[in-house]
User: Which sequence fits this backbone?
């Protein structure tokens, strides 16, 4: 609650609002020559990140004291780096002669391509599954027929009839499975 401290905080906030070049010039006016060079180098190295760091530290310090200043500086630095990265990306696109609409169109094409690949994989998996089911049913038909022949050879006509009925059911399922497999391909 010290009035001098409150004025200093207001000064820092106003200084931050005016931009990082003002920070460098104020630092240069009050600091020794060696420090002036370091402040100027820091402010010109990454224009947005220092501004974000200082703004976060000032706001965090006002709200939560020293720990808030530290956490605010970390958050402000991250936000400044993100905005700097977005600005760099926009500049690279402009240098290539592309607009954000071109980028959006390219992202849409990539999304459509990924969706098409996923659809193709699903269709391929469905076809593989249908072929496997048809193969399994074909084995069931053969097994039922062999069992019916064995039952008939053993003199069990009733058992042979049951095996032939199972074979008939499996044959119907096999015909549907083969049709599904052909449709999936």
Assistant:
């Amino acid at each position: 609650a010290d009035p001098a401290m409150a004025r200093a905080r207001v000064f820092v906030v106003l200084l931050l609002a005016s931009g990082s070049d003002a920070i460098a010039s104020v630092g240069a006016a009050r600091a020794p020559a060696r420090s002036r060079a370091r402040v100027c180098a820091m402010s010109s190295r990454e224009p947005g990140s220092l501004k974000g760091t200082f703004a976060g530290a000032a706001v965090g310090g006002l709200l939560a004291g020293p720990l808030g200043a530290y956490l605010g500086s970390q958050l402000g630095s991250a936000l400044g780096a993100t905005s700097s990265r977005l600005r760099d990306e926009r500049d690279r696109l402009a240098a290539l002669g592309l607009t954000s609409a071109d980028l959006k169109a390219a992202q849409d094409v990539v999304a459509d391509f990924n969706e098409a690949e996923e659809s193709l994989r699903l269709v391929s998996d469905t076809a593989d599954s249908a072929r496997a089911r048809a193969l399994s049913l074909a084995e069931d038909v053969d097994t039922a027929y062999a069992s019916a022949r064995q039952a008939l050879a053993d003199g069990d006509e009733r058992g042979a009839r049951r095996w032939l009925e199972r074979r008939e059911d499996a044959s119907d399922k096999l015909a549907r499975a083969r049709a599904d497999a052909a449709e999936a391909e």
Remarks:
- Residues 3-97 form one domain.
- The chain has two domains: 3-97, 104-184.
- The chain has a mean pLDDT of 74.
